[in-house]
Structures are given as structure tokens and as C-alpha cells.
């Protein structure tokens, strides 16, 4: 049955009216935040008191206290400072950019065949070297071994996502080692945060192992001489706002990420006001339990980030760029990364070209899945193995395909 749009008319009108009111309130709140920023811009002592409180009272407490995370500037005196990229000064004459992405077909207990697929796609872009970009593609099909009569891997989509993420960064480390040459910068780029915390119902020991594997890949990239960043389009964190909240009269030290009337706002909205097109913020250090866990394994991989406006004057678009401390402390490298990203965004328009291409190489569409399952079915028939979809899946296919109507 088609959606009855007539019944939704009043709701759509009300939705637009509500959006206008919310925008007005957001603008007022952002005005307040900017006023706080202007008043406390050079208060390094206030920043240090906040950081010490979080580290000593919240993150080191034997009793768990809710804390969503915050941040502080890597350099003193730069609470919100920003820099503009100069192509003539900061853009390297030559560089190698390696962008990677992944996709998967998750296991489906209603499908005819038990399997999952991970597909990794990458592009190697030779900036200023007169060499055409190279593509890399690596599909991996996972299925039960003869003695696996029951296995959690084939009923747990979260584990598949973790395997895909680890395969992405592991492959990125190998490609960095393969392509890095001499003094030419090699920038490895992922389309996700670098402060990796696996999701899903995973055991503590398994989570620690995953984080260890992730950090080992980061170390391999550093040892190979490469740079590594994570690019987050439309970020939703309020880490810097949480820091600014600590300067206000209603700041609650027992609940340091309680933003009060600022709740619902994010850093990107503030930086959309502060950063002109092409500009980036100061570099911040992530202040969270996840980053504390990273730091315990070595401070080199403590995660930092900066915000970056890749939009236009009339339409700002704020991205977040994650990078480990060993890279964030190299101001020349940060400036070059900023300029390379700006150059990439000018190719594709508000998003790095290499990431768009990596996604295109990695994505597994519905037709790809149908073709794969047709090939699997043929081989199953040849091997004398017969499988069928569940009755639920068959009926859903019929109904959604328009072959059955409820009368």
C-alpha cells in the first residue's frame, strides 16, 4: 500500500514551523557560547584546571562516573585558534595519498546460504607526480568450515563490522609500507574516526585485543614513514563545547559534560561561525575514557583532532580530522595535511576526492550481491547441496516485489 501523503500534510507544516523556532533558539545559544569564548580565550589556567579535574577526578576514579568526553588545545594560548591553508606555502609539490574504505554483506539467517563478505577498496593518488591514480580491491568471502556446525561469526553483524574495520586499517598499513618512498609525504586516509572503540556485545578481553590490533596498524604506518588521519564528515561531537561550559557559572564539576541549555548543540555549529572557507581550527587533544585507554598503550597514539571548513561563505561544511599525537605535534605535517585535504576537496567539491573514489571501489551493491549468490547457488547445485530461503524471506520477497496484494 502506498504512503498516504494527504494524512501527513499537517505534520509536515508543523515540522517546518518547529524547525524555524529551533533554529532561532540555536542561534541564541551559539551567541552565548561565542561570548564565553571571547571572554576566556587566553585563560590557559582555566583550561588546565578543567583538564586536571577530568583526569584526576573523573577518568581516574575507582567509581564509574558518566562522562561523554571533552577536549583541550594541544598548544597553550590557542583555545580556538585557527589557520588558513596556503597552497603556495604548505601544499607539498609531491605526495602520495592512500584512501581506503570497506563494505560488507552481513550474515542473514533467513538467506539460503550462510556466509558473509568483506570488500576493501582503496585508491593510491600520486599528487604532483604525473602518475595516474591506482585502484586496489580485495574481496573476502567467509563461510563455515566443514567442522563449524555453529559459529557466532555467522549470526553476529557487529563482529563482521569489526573485522571489516580491522581489515581496512591493516590493509592501509600494508599499502603505506608498499608506496612510501624517500621524503615524499605519504598520507593514509580513513573515512572514520581514528579513536576506535568496537561496538556490539563483545567481551572485554576481545575488545582489548581489537584495540591492540588497531594500534599495531597505526604503529606500522608510523614506522613506515607515513601519516595517518581519519576524516569525519558532519561530526556530531560536543567536546569543545564541554570545555567552554567549564568557564560558566552553572558548570557542574560532578557532571562535567552536562551542557545545560547548550545540550543538543555540537562543535561543528560553533566552528561553522568561526572558520572561513578553507580554514582549520587549532589542534585539540581528545579527553575521554577511550583516549585514556589508547594512551595507556603508548602516548604516541593519543588521539587529537582539528576542525576544517570545506564549505562556502554562504554554506559552511565542517569536517573533523583525527590524527595521533605523534603526527599532531609536527606542525609542518599538520599544515601539509590541511593543504592536501583542501586540494582534494577542491577536486570533488566539499569532500576529499580520494575518499569518494575509495567508497566507489569498495561498495557492494544489491546487484553485486545477487550476482554473487547466483554463482554460489550454481556451485551448490554442482556439489549436490540444496538450500532454501526461510518462508519469511520468501514471502517478504514476493510482497515487496509487488506480486502479492492484501485484499
Q: What do you see in this structure?
A:
By secondary structure, this protein is of the alpha+beta class. It folds into 2 domains: 22-362, no CATH class; 366-400, no CATH class. The chain is built from 13 helices and 11 strands. Strand 4 and strand 5 form a beta hairpin. Helix 4 (157-179) runs parallel beside helix 5 (204-224). It is globular and about 75 Å long.
CA radius of gyration is 24 Å
Low-confidence stretches: 390-395, 402-407
The average pLDDT value, as a whole number, equals: 88
Strand ordering within the main sheet: 1-9-10-11-7-6-3-4-5
Q: Report the total helices.
A: 13
What shape does the CA trace take? globular
Based on DSSP secondary structure assignment, what is the total number of beta strands?
Answer: 11
Q: Please state the structural category.
A: alpha+beta
Largest sheet, in brief, is: 9 strands, mixed
Q: Strand portion, in percent?
A: 15-25%
> Span from first to last CA?
10 Å
> Portion of residues in helices?
40-55%
How many distinct folded domains?
Answer: 2
N-to-C order of helices and strands: HHEEHEEEHEHEHHEEHEEHHHHH
What is shown here, in short?
43% of the residues lie in helices and 18% in strands. It has helices spanning 9-40, 44-58, 87-90, 157-179, 204-224, 239-245, 267-274, 289-296, 325-328, 331-348, 353-362, 366-382, 391-400; strands at 70-73, 82-84, 95-105, 116-127, 134-142, 186-190, 227-233, 279-281, 284-287, 303-309, 318-324. Helix 4 packs parallel to helix 5 (204-224).
Amino acid at each position: 500500500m502506498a504512503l498516504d501523503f494527504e494524512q501527513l500534510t499537517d505534520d509536515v507544516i508543523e515540522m517546518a514551523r518547529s524547525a524555524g523556532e529551533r533554529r532561532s533558539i540555536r542561534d541564541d545559544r551559539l551567541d552565548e557560547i561565542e561570548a564565553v569564548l571571547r571572554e576566556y580565550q587566553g585563560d590557559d589556567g582555566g583550561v588546565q584546571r578543567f583538564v586536571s579535574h577530568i583526569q584526576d577526578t573523573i577518568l581516574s576514579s575507582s567509581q564509574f562516573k558518566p562522562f561523554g568526553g571533552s577536549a583541550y588545545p594541544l598548544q597553550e594560548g590557542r583555545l580556538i585558534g585557527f589557520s588558513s591553508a596556503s597552497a603556495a606555502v604548505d601544499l607539498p609539490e609531491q605526495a602520495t595519498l592512500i584512501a581506503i574504505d570497506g563494505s560488507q554483506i552481513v550474515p542473514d539467517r533467513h538467506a539460503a546460504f550462510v556466509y558473509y563478505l568483506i570488500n576493501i577498496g582503496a585508491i593510491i593518488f600520486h599528487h604532483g607526480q604525473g602518475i595516474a591514480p591506482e585502484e586496489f580491491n580485495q574481496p573476502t568471502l567467509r563461510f563455515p568450515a566443514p567442522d563449524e556446525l555453529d559459529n557466532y561469526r555467522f549470526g553476529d553483524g557487529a563482529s563482521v563490522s569489526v573485522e571489516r574495520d580491522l581489515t581496512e586499517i591493516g590493509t592501509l598499513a600494508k599499502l603505506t609500507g608498499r608506496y612510501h618512498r624517500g621524503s615524499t609525504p605519504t598520507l593514509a586516509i580513513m573515512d572514520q574516526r581514528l579513536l576506535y572503540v568496537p561496538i556490539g556485545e563483545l567481551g572485554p578481553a576481545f575488545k582489548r585485543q581489537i584495540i591492540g590490533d588497531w594500534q599495531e596498524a597505526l604503529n606500522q604506518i608510523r614506522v613506515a614513514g607515513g601519516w595517518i588521519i581519519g576524516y569525519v564528515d558532519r561530526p556530531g561531537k560536543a567536546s569543545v563545547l564541554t570545555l567552554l561550559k567549564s568557564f560558566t557559572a552553572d558548570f557542574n564539576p560532578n557532571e562535567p559534560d552536562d551542557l545545560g541549555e547548550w545540550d543538543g548543540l555540537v562543535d561543528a555549529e560553533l566552528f561553522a561561525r568561526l572558520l572561513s572557507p578553507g580554514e582549520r581550527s587549532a589542534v585539540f587533544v581528545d579527553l575521554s575514557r577511550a583516549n585514556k585507554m589508547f594512551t595507556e598503550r603508548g602516548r604516541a597514539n593519543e588521539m587529537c583532532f582539528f576542525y576544517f571548513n570545506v564549505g562556502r561563505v554562504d554554506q559552511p561544511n565542517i569536517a573533523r580530522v583525527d590524527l595521533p599525537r605523534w603526527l599532531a605535534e609536527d606542525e609542518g605535517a599538520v599544515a601539509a595535511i590541511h593543504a592536501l585535504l583542501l586540494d582534494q576537496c577542491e577536486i570533488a567539491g566539499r569532500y576529499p576526492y580520494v575518499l569518494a573514489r575509495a567508497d566507489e571501489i569498495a561498495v557492494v551493491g544489491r546487484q553485486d550481491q545477487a550476482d554473487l549468490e547466483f554463482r554460489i547457488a550454481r556451485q551448490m547445485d554442482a556439489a549436490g547441496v540444496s538450500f532454501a530461503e526461510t518462508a519469511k524471506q520468501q514471502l517478504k520477497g514476493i510482497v515487496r516485489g509487488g506480486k502479492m496484494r492484501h485484499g
